[in-house]
């Protein structure tokens, strides 16, 4: 794949719910290592669009290309196999399991005892988890801590680490910082930057414009299901983006 091929490209995606057009002919692309902010007011179609990309919904119209090839993403497993990992606000971590068990959840490493009895390889999973967390600069006191005893930001970090460990090429974050304190928000944003520098593409949805401006290279704005604008972050500002989000006619001085 050459550098000019987008990692992911969606073309003219339409998703309807009964009579409502939640996503209306939206096209966008994202390159390896790029961070794209997906913005829009409540109900603009952001979550619906990413659910199409992550295989939760089937589009009514449109095409998806991954690494230059047309793909059908019929279910979430198809997306994961391609390297598309999506984190929703409910993170799908197992509260009662510890950190490393969550990183290996559903893909546990088994070794055989005395050459015959299968047992979980705790040491391997702990060491591997320690490595991925330290690559990402994440500090968690003990990997034997249960998830339910971690802070929101630490949980978010574990979930992101899990995606990275299993080779995510595209990470989609739907409101990753909404429930976090200021310091923890900052850590998650740092993590997004680290991932980007390691070549992972990230689509981030957030109502916190300031956060998105901090990390995104490019911004895509949806309104009422349609893409109404796309800007390089360094060539725009929050006034212009808010204008696009709400419709210029509502902004003072707009037409
Ligand atoms: N499963 C569904 N069935 C019917 N309508 C839906 C469904 N999911 C979303 N919608 C509608 O589609 C539109 C887009 O919703 P979506 O959740 O994509 O918005 P959003 O941009 O993520 O908003 P928010 O910022 O509030 O999360 C809304 O009008 C919503 O009510
Ligand atoms: Mg949403």
Can you characterise this structure?
- The chain is of the alpha/beta class and 255 residues long.
- The chain has a domain at 8-93 and 170-250: Rossmann fold (3-Layer(aba) Sandwich), CATH 3.40.50.
- It has eight helices and twelve strands.
- The chain has helices at residues 46-53, 76-82, 99-103, 122-135, 152-165, 182-197, 209-215, 238-246, and strands at residues 8-17, 20-30, 35-39, 61-66, 69-71, 84-87, 110-113, 117-120, 170-174, 201-205, 218-223, 226-232.
- The strands form three sheets. A six-stranded mixed sheet has the order 6-9-10-3-11-12, sandwiched between helices. Strands 2-1-4-5 form a four-stranded antiparallel sheet, with helices on one face.
- Strand 1 (8-17) and strand 2 (20-30) form a beta hairpin.
- The longest helix has 16 residues, at 182-197.
- The N and C termini lie far apart (43 Å).
- The mean pLDDT is 90.
- The structure holds adenosine-5'-triphosphate (ATP) and magnesium ion.
- Residues 46-47 line the site of magnesium ion.
- Adenosine-5'-triphosphate binds next to strand 2 and helix 1.
Number of strands: 12
| Whole-number mean pLDDT | 90
Which range does the strand content fall in?
25-35%
**Shape assignment:** globular
Q: Give the second-level CATH assignment, the architecture of one domain.
A: 3-Layer(aba) Sandwich
Describe the largest sheet.
6 strands, mixed
Strand order of the largest sheet: 6-9-10-3-11-12
N-to-C SSE string, H for helix and E for strand:
EEEHEEHEHEEHHEHEHEEH
Say what the CATH topology of one domain is: Rossmann fold
Hetero groups in this structure are: adenosine-5'-triphosphate, magnesium ion
Count helical runs: 8
Q: Please state the structural category.
A: alpha/beta
- Termini separation: 43 Å
Please identify the top-level CATH class of one domain. Answer: Alpha Beta
Rg over C-alpha atoms, rounded to the nearest angstrom: 19 Å
Quaternary status of these chains?
Answer: single chain
CATH homolog superfamily of one domain: P-loop containing nucleotide triphosphate hydrolases
Low-confidence stretches: none
Helix content: 25-40%
